[in-house]
Amino acid sequence: MIHIQMAGIRNKEDALMCVNEGVDIIGLLVGQMHTSDDFLTKEKAKEIKDYLPKDIKTTLITHLEDGDKIIEIAKYIDVDYIQLHSHLDESEVEKIHNALPNKKLLRLIHIDSDGNLLNDISKMKYVDFYFTDSINLKTNQFGGTGLSHNLDTDKRLVETLDKPVFIAGGLNPDNVYDAVKYCNPYGVDVNTGCRGKDGLRDKEKTKAFVHNARKN
Ligand SMILES: O=C(O)c1ccccc1NCC(=O)[C@H](O)[C@H](O)COP(=O)(O)O
């Protein structure tokens, strides 16, 4: 079964709705670089995590570059996964890996609109999962862009990398079926594509996203 991470969760009610619709990983954004209403305090993120059934995985999604700070927040919320920003120095990643060996590390691979990789994967030493995502070079937005990219790149990465790959970037209920069919990833991630006009999670979009992601 394909794994589904929902990012941009802002409250515990939305988190539980997503879980009830079949999402199995909840992404909690703490520690930002660019402005986004999806970022939470660590206290709010912990409140959401503690409200969820114990078998639901949570991910700390962060832009912080200080390994000690990331370790402190990940321990405090007690997440299962840590999604690390691609600019993080590998020595900081090593620190996190050594301090929290049981927490899985998701490593970002940013892809531009033409499908070019913007990171040197060969320098990533500590990886449990790769995570492809779009970038908006105009706004310097490194996530939650709602922008798609050329999926040929994702497909190639899924086929050639030695660790499981999550794909993300502009996925939505209408395109996730084809994306999964074409790339055959370990998991998919979505934020904007399941957002309502109020910025919160849209139940119908979430239901359709989960259904279509697992229809293959
Ligand atoms: O989701 C955000 O608002 C966000 C903001 C800043 C950095 C990362 C962010 N999200 C990381 C994610 O895992 C998103 O779900 C991923 O970028 C896909 O977003 P979207 O293209 O909107 O589905």
TrEMBL record:
GO molecular function: phosphoribosylanthranilate isomerase activity
SUPFAM superfamilies per UniProt: Ribulose-phoshate binding barrel
Keywords assigned by UniProt, alphabetized: Amino-acid biosynthesis, Aromatic amino acid biosynthesis, Isomerase, Tryptophan biosynthesis
Keyword Heme: no
CDD domains per UniProt: PRAI (cd00405)
Known EC number: 5.3.1.24
Catalysed transformations (reactions): N-(5-phospho-beta-D-ribosyl)anthranilate = 1-(2-carboxyphenylamino)-1-deoxy-D-ribulose 5-phosphate
N-(5'phosphoribosyl) anthranilate isomerase (PRAI) domain location: 7-211
Organism superkingdom: Bacteria
Keyword Protein transport: no
Biological-process GO terms, alphabetical: L-tryptophan biosynthetic process
Enzyme's top EC category: isomerase
Pathway the protein takes part in: Amino-acid biosynthesis; L-tryptophan biosynthesis; L-tryptophan from chorismate: step 3/5
Protein family per UniProt: Belongs to the TrpF family.
Record's protein name: N-(5'-phosphoribosyl)anthranilate isomerase
